[in-house]
Amino acid sequence: MRQLHFNLFLHDTGHHEASWRLPESDPYANLSLAAHQHLAKIAEEAKFDSVFLADSPVLWSDPGRRPAGKLEPTLLLAALVATTSRIGLIATASTSYNEPYNLARRFASLDHLSGGRAGWNIVTTAGEAAARNFGLDDQPLHKARYERADEFLEVSTRLWDSWADDAIVADKEAGVHARTDRVRGINHRGAFFRVDGALNLPRSPQAHPLLVQAGSSEDGKDFAAKWAEAVFTAQPTLSESQAFYADLKRRAAALGRNPDHVVILPGIVPVIGDTPAQARELEAELDRLIAPQYALATIAHTLGVDPDLLSLDRPLPDDLPGEEQIEGAKSRRTLIVDWARRENLTVRQLIGKLGGGRGHRTFTGTPVQVADTIQHYFENGAADGFNIMPAVLPSGIEAFAGKVVPILQERGLFRTEYTGTMLREHYGLPRPALEGALA
Ligand SMILES: Cc1cc2nc3c(=O)[nH]c(=O)nc-3n(C[C@H](O)[C@H](O)[C@H](O)COP(=O)(O)O)c2cc1C
Fold it and tell me: pLDDT tens, 111-152?
């Protein structure tokens, strides 16, 4: 029987903008190893496929408004290796502001250290602020970022394959550690990179880390269809989720890939109460804590307009820049505009909707209601599983793991035990066969 997949999107005190202000929240959780270990442990006990850390090489959010300090994800996940044993560990890293050799090595290291539990959320990094941290005046164009990402992946996968699986023989008698004819430089010459190789690490347990991607623009979806094995996505309605799901599976199949090997995970923000009224109360309490002037500035930035053009108690202006004019996160801009227009929202109402999950769908209700909605999406061509983004952490994941997961397990929709040890096995994905000169 087909079963759900769950990823926990780690986010210090929770995905709600104002979660750090709740009395229960530790405002220093973003810098705490113990806090992250605690979250990973809850997710592992609930048999989640993976935990995930987002990232960007830039001071991402306003440090005045919410905890903005972000530990480097592969370092933090390496520390979680020691206190977990089965759960997958997915780190975000940018193809625009790294070199393939360093990054391929970092993910191979994480895969070796964790016994095959590493995943890479591949991002192209939107925004000129990040570009200015790397000697550029402005961000490379959206299309050029994806072209670089494509070559970046070509180089990385070839580096991971630069040692054959049988290269190491560790023959003490003969004094031969590895067969040098089974290790080969990649000698790559491309538009963006020149890399001789080989990698300075043997092929890792999973061969390649699990490749994850989250772009939803046309270029983003083409990139995902070619490279991604799991896809995160923000989809505010069931019908949009279904359309995205069908579109991406079709694109993957058109490239000759097995569509089952692209696992689609829309984000959801579960807000769980023992009664429907309790759940709604929790949601309302959080929304009251949002500082609207900061949220307005964030929306203006995504839409590519001056914040002065937006006013809290009016709808979005009619003449906004179109997706084709946005060089940042194109698809997030469209999602926000469509949502506001569809429901005729004022900017203040839009902020309330986005506060919980920045465009991800909020499932508010009792454990049974949340489980029912998950099942409905899963059985109606909208998802292979979910990226769980609790509004408040750790209480949100405690509630989800303790109350929703058992219902889904009872219904046979989610595992009660891990059957594999590696991240690819959790997601039902094969280990990549060796390609190229050493195959
Ligand atoms: C769940 C989720 C997590 C994401 N995490 C990151 C991240 O950590 N860093 C980042 O730069 N972008 C992140 N993104 C943004 C995407 O990589 C992508 O840029 C965005 O969805 C816009 O799509 P497009 O680039 O194809 O226009 C994330 C998106 C989603 C849906």
Answer: 999 999 999 999 999 999 999 999 999 999 999 999 999 999
Measured from the CB, is residue 374 less than 6 Å from ligand 1?
A: no
* Phi, psi (degrees; rounded to nearest 5) at 16: -75, 130
**Has residue 329 got a pLDDT over 80?**
no
For residue range 353-363, list pLDDT tens digits in order. 776 556 678 88
215 lines ligand 1 (CB under 6 A): yes
Name which residue sits closest to atom 8 of ligand 1, judged by CA: 54
How far apart, in whole angstroms, are the C-alpha atoms of residue 128 and residue 192?
A: 20
pLDDT given for residue 358 in this prediction: 62
Convert 18-39 to b/e letters by CB count within 10 Å (16 or more is b): bbbbbeebbeebbeeeebbbbb
pTM, two decimals, is: 0.92
Across the range 332-339, mean pLDDT stands at 88
- Ligand 1, residues 96, 143, 146, 216: which to mutate, most atoms within 8 A of Cβ? 216
* 26-72 pLDDT tens trace: 999 999 999 999 999 999 999 999 999 999 999 988 898 889 999 99
Ligand 1, closest atom to CA 330? 27
In this prediction, residue 76 has a pLDDT band, given cuts at 50, 70 and 90, of very high
What's the 326 CA to ligand 1 centre distance in angstroms? Answer: 14
